Each structure stands twice: as C-alpha cells, then as structure tokens.
Amino acid sequence: xxxxxxxxxxxVMMITGGVSGAQLSPTTAPSNAPGTGAPGTGTASPGxxxxxxxxxxGNSATPATPQSGAGTSSGTPTTGTRSPLPPGPAPVNAAPxxxxxxxxxxxxxxxxxxxxxxxxxxxxxxxxxxxxxAGATTPPGATGRAGAASPGATGEGEAATAPQGTPGAAAxxxxxAPGSTAGQQPLREPLTLAQLVERxxxxxxxxxxxxxxxxxxxxxxxxxxxxxxxxxxxxxGVGGPIPEARNNGLGGPPTTKASLEGDWDFGxxxxxxxxxxxxxxxxxxxxxxxxxEKAGAQGPxxxxxxxxxxxxxxxxxxxxxYYGYQLxxxxxxxxxxxxxxxxxxxxxxxxxLKEDSDQVSKVDTYKLGYFRELVESQRASAVQxxxxxxxxxxxxxxxxxxxxxxxxxxxxPLQDEVRIPDLETVLKRASERRPELKAVAAGIIxxxxxxxxxERSFYPxxxxxxxxxxRWTSSATRQRSPFAYDPYNERTLGLGLVMRGxxxxxxxxxQLEQARAELDKLHAQEQTLKAGIQLEVTQVHGQLVxxxxxxxxxxxxxxxxxxxxxxAYAAFDLxxxxxxxxxxxxxxxxxxxxxxxxxxxxxxxxLASLARVTGAVPGAxx
Length: 622
Fold this sequence. Notes:
By secondary structure, the protein is an alpha/beta fold. The chain has helices at 2-7, 13-21, 193-203, 205-225, 288-296, 298-354, 362-396, 423-433, 435-456, 505-574, 579-613; strands spanning 122-123, 185-186, 233-242, 270-284, 403-404, 418-419, 461-473, 491-500. The protein is elongated, with a radius of gyration of 37 Å.
C-alpha cells in the first residue's frame, strides 16, 4: 500500500510542468503552455494501488519525485532514486523470522484463542505500547523453549535487573548495549514509552527525510501559485572591434573613406554595447492557471500525509522495541527464579544421597543437572536479546554517540481490564484518520484539475507582451531618420496584446483521454485502498482480542503451575514426593511463565498496532 500511496504525489505534476507552460512567449519557439499540448508531453501516472498493494503488513513505499520539465503538464515519477521506506509493521501473531516487520513478534508461539474482550477500565485510546524497528526488537533468547529457557515474565521477583521501584537501574555485571561505553553520559532519566515514541516520531532519520520531501512539495506549490508571473528575459552584451561607419545620420552614403566596404581600411574601430529583453504577462487562459494552483495545493497535503505515515511507523516500531526489551528483561528475571529453585532442589538431593535415603538416586542428580544447564544456556541468549533491543531503541531514539540510553522497567501484564473498542468503532476511526486516505483524496483532486486543464487546452491563451532593444556603437553614426536601418545604434520598444494556441487536435484529444483514464484509475485505487485498510484493521482487531484472551488464560495457567511447583517441592522436601514430579512441576512453571510473558507482550504490541492502524499515537493520550 505504501508504495502506491507514495506515488500519488505524481498527480501534482501540474506544479512543475504548468509553471513555465502556461506562460506566453513572444519568440517563435513551440508553445509549452498548458493547453497547447506539445507532442511528447505525456502525463505521469500517480501510481497503481493493485489489490496486492493494499495496506498490509510488511509493505514498503518509495515516494515518487515529480520531475520539473518545461512544457509538460506532469512530472515523471523517478524510480530507484530514493531509499525505500522500511517494511510496515507485522501482525500481532507469530510469523517466520524472515517475514519483514515481524521481529518483535517472533517470540510468540501458538495461535491465540479467540475471545471477546471484557468491558472495564483501560481504553484503547491510550494504549500502553507500540513498536520496534523491523528485525531489531525480538530478543533472540525469547523464542520460548520448554523448560524455563524462554524469557517470560511472571510479575514476581527481580534478579538480573534492579529491584522494582528503581526503573531502568541495571544490576552489576549486566552486559551493555552494543556501541555503549563506560564513559557515556546517561540521559537525565530513563526513557518511558511515551518519551521513546515521541523521540522516534520527531528524530528518526526517515521522519527527517519525509519532512524534507514535504518542504519540496510546499516549494512546488509556491511555484505553481506564481506561475502567472511574467518571465523577463534580458540580455546584456558588449563586443568589438566594430569598423568605422559614418554618414550624415539620415541614411545617406558614407562620409568617410574608411566607412566604405570591400577594403582593409577599417578606420577608427570601436565597440558596441547592447541590451535586449522581452516578457509576457498572461491575461486570460480560460481557467488553466486557477486549476494549476489548485492542483499544486494538493502537493503539501500529500507530503504531510506521507510524513504522518512515516511518523506513525517510527512510533509503532519504537513501542515494539520497548516491549521487546521488557520481554527480555522479564525473561532474565524468570531464569533467575527457576535457576534458584533448581539449585535448592539439587542441594536437597545431595543431602538425601549423603544420608543414603531411598527417596532419591544418582540419576536424580543427573536430571536436575541437565535442567540447570539448560536454563543457564538460555541466559546468554536472553542477555543478547536485551542488548539487541537496547540497540534498536538507541537507533529509533536517534541517540548521540555519547548518550547512554536507559529504559524504565515496566511489567508487561496489565493490572486492569483492557477495554477493546468494537470493530465498527475502530473502522470508523481508521476511515477518519489514516493519512493514506488523505493522500489519495488529494491525488484525486489534482487529477481532476489535470483533466480540466486538458479540456481547456483547445482554447488559446491571451497575454500582454512587451520587448525592447537598445544598442550603441562608438564607431558608427546614429541614424536619425525613422526609415533608415541602423543595426549599430538601435532603440526599439514595444507593447501589445498577443494570442497563442496550437492546432494539434489529435494529440490534445489523446492527452485528454489519458488524463480521464488516470482519474478513473485513481478512483478505483481509492476503493481498493479503503478495502485494504478495512481488512488490515479487522485483522489487527481480531488478533488483539485473541491475544488478550490468550494472555488471561495463560495468566491463570501460570498461577496454577506455580501452586503445583510449590506443592511438589514441599512434598519432595518432606520425603513424600519424587524427583520426577518435581521436575515436571518446574518445567510446567517455566513454560507457563514464559508463555504468559510473551502473551502479554503480544497484547501490548497489539494495542500499539491497533493505535497505528486507526491513526492514533501509541502510548499517548488522545
């Protein structure tokens, strides 16, 4: 979708071509005025929004650049001259690692169970979450291996990070993010979600690029607005040597011998100084200039919509990176919790073995040792995932080389009920706020004005033309007779009404039909775009509802697994339970805790994704 929406900017072609085209010229050069339709001035297409280009996740866009060209009524989109925008955000559910824009969701396994959202407190208008740059948010250690290897949040305890209540404080020995050094100056305070999203929306390099593109559209609009301004062509020159040319000043015969031609006697040679100029002020063009200005005014609208789309993408990716970091942090804490429990069980087994208890055997030691090492093997992956998420956050926040970025510690599970708006509400919000729809609407207006200009191209242009020609030569006599030809000392000035038009009727008919076809195509693309947005919003809304239901179920499952593990450990400690029951309970607890953390991560990212597809800002009050 993004590629096609971005190419809608080509519909402001009248800005560039019509500026010089609608002006009248007193010269004999072919007219390039809008409406004269010189051969070869084809109209650029605003892009195609094919059904495969609807606004689906992972699509990228490269805004077309209108090319300036005198005599054309359209700019030609240049392909391959700009870096494409990054892939769009991915759906909430899990997808293969190769899918663009789906990095932060790779930690999700399984299919969310569909369920209706519970009415309650938190409104989606203030979603607590958003995005991460494609491919840069998912902690590699967050892939959810069974046996407590996956980083998952349980909402209890803190081992690898500072205690709760000290947001963003890193524990001693915690690995630093790539590119950070011990001498870096930390920010004034750890970044919250809202602060990170705001920095990404304002300081991301892609936003700066889109802002520059908007400035270009604004300049093109000013160019179209002043297209009526006369184009003054002035020439100044000096040259020589000029042979002597003397007579009586009335066009009579030469009065000196050197003035005669056909010999090598040049007499007293001199120099000549001259200046010529002309200009045309359009007076009446049958509405071409008014249509040109109206079409040009759509350029800033398209540019603003494209910039807003990039800002929404950057904000969503920032929230995705933020929640990826929180998922990795929670996973490290969970690994510490499970590791401690396994260590206690291992010490208990060693004690029983020394007492020659029949309750345990050497095989039990091997079992516990295996699971302990499995947990430790996942710790490095979780640390690396946390560092990777911090690197993505630094990139999205556009942090300087001397800035040490810290992020507040936040629990992924929400304490309150999440009130998810119904599908009809979110569809209405999307239809009112999505910048892509604003860009297409502006493109349609520009295309309509192009059709109008093509229709009026059959009429001539009227204008006021003026010119002057002044020359002076030091070695020539100025002629005072109005009937004498004097190329050396000319003084000519003129002003008059001019009318200009061409009679290439077949070419104008073809260009008019092309413009009408492009307008019809853009109307069809608008319908495709609306359908695509509706499909995207429906998909994101359904995934969020399912993710929330899954998160609530896994929260209860994790609570039961914790009770099971506590009971199994107590029974083992009393001598009434065996190691198999203990290991099974710990494995179930680790898996349930990891899945619970990932499910709430999906809910948070789903809330941010729903805010993006409805045109809201993730993590900000509306």
